[in-house]
Amino acid sequence: MKIQHFAAVAAIILLGTIFLSSKKPGGTLSADGPYILYRNDSTRVIRVNPDGTIFDSTYYRTPAAFNVCDHQGNYPFTVSLRPIRRQKWDYRSIPERVFVMSDPHGRMDCAVSLLCGNGVIDDKLDWSFGTGHLVLIGDLFDRGDDAVQLFWLFYKLQQEAYDAGGRVTILLGNHEPMEFSGDMRYATPKYQLLADELGLEYRDLFGPDSELGRWIASWNVIGIVGRDLFVHAGLGGDFYKQDIPVEEVNQEMSKALFLRNRERKAASDKLAFLYGSYGPVWNRGLLLDGKKWHPVTADTLQLILNRYDVDHIIVGHTIIDDVSSFYDGRVIGVNVDNEKNRRKGLGRALLIEHGHYYVAGDKGILRELK
């Protein structure tokens, strides 16, 4: 059993409990975690090994570093804990290179393939993009088996990028607030199984007293890099009429992140709108034209661009066949079926380099975006 993952970082164990989980209806446990929860003068660490064994241990001192791997024991890397800073949302200076991806949905192999193939990380999963800027437009949660491991990978890369003079910006999608609210409709069954074994709600593993919860609460909803505005789903006419400053959107949605959805709706009309169907993490009106989506007119789009002094809005959320532009190039969609597009050699990300926009696949640039 692999308790040595933490033995190497010299923490004193107060209590170590091992649960042996077997196959049960609705799912099987696989490598997962760690989940790090702070309790007054101690730290609780929960992880699942590749064989499905749960380790639930409490430490006098928080482990300084730990090992992570995907659900099958592949893609190992080491993470060091570090102070959490509120992410900056406005980078008006234009980096030489910006790499943009979205909606990895718990698929470690797809994310690593894309990042390695474009020189953002090396084969040891370390930052190799120099002073470049990586933007991830939300939805690390749900559907795949490696959501927590992806959180830790980007947690690690964010610090490595900062140390190299680069940046990693991660925006909230709609699935992070769903999970934090207790809505697990799209979660792989193993996460509910883990929660059941621990006698918890799964959301309890990401509360404001957890390392990952604190970090995810530092993410913004809207970010600007150079002349590009990034948001998970989209901004529409309803959002324009609300006229809420970007900084307020980011702060208010972060403050309500740990509330249940009904509590967000009850808190204020503003918060109900921001987390609602036509708010920035759900609105599909920039990419879909059906009446129920409240499609955005070209004139309204230009008003939004003018208000934020940007040239493009770049979104994820809505799955499209390939990375594409809309509204004469003023809107760019980057969310695709990651597994299918990887298999077929289609676009999976956007590279912005020296003012040019390129569709990138798992082996680098495929073409210039038109």
Mind explaining what this structure looks like?
It is a single chain. By secondary structure, this protein is of the alpha/beta class. It folds into 2 domains: 4-80, no CATH class; 90-368, Purple Acid Phosphatase, chain A, domain 2 (4-Layer Sandwich), CATH 3.60.21.10. 27% of the residues lie in helices and 24% in strands. It has 12 helices and 18 strands. It has a 6-stranded mixed beta sheet. The protein has a 6-stranded mixed beta sheet with strand order 10-9-8-16-17-18. Strands 1-4-3-2 form a 4-stranded antiparallel beta sheet. β14 (324-326) and β15 (331-333) form a beta hairpin.
Secondary-structure blueprint of this entry?
Layout: H1 4-7, E1 13-20, E2 32-39, E3 42-48, E4 53-59, E5 65-68, E6 77-80, E7 90-91, E8 97-101, H2 108-117, E9 133-136, H3 147-163, E10 167-170, H4 175-181, H5 189-198, H6 211-216, E11 222-225, E12 228-231, H7 237-242, H8 246-255, H9 261-267, H10 269-274, H11 298-308, E13 312-315, E14 324-326, E15 331-333, H12 338-344, E16 349-353, E17 356-361, E18 364-368
Parallel strand pairs: 7-11, 8-9, 9-10, 12-13, 13-15
Antiparallel strand pairs: 1-4, 2-3, 3-4, 5-6, 8-16, 11-12, 14-15, 16-17, 17-18
